[in-house]
Design a protein that fits this description.
alpha+beta, single chain, two-stranded parallel ribbon, two-stranded antiparallel sheet
Length: 71
């Protein structure tokens, strides 16, 4: 999973290359870091849940989709 910046460009710290098939926002993502406390956090770890949610939604609409088709 790659991470993109708010500008839509690949984040400097992101994975890249021919094996990268999907990216999501992962730079300055607003997250709750403590009860009632928000902060802007960056990393591919924050992009991965967004990608997982999209793929889960696609699979729920197309239950017979294969792994290769999801890629």
């Amino acid at each position: 999973v790659g991470a993109i910046e708010p500008t839509g460009l690949m984040a400097e710290f992101s994975q890249s290359g021919s094996g990268l098939t999907v990216s999501a926002p992962g730079h300055f993502v607003l997250a709750m870091v403590a009860p009632g406390q928000m902060d802007a956090i960056s990393g591919t770890s924050f992009a991965a849940p967004l990608v997982t949610g999209v793929l889960s939604t696609v699979e729920s609409v197309l239950p017979g989709i294969t792994f290769d088709e999801l890629k």
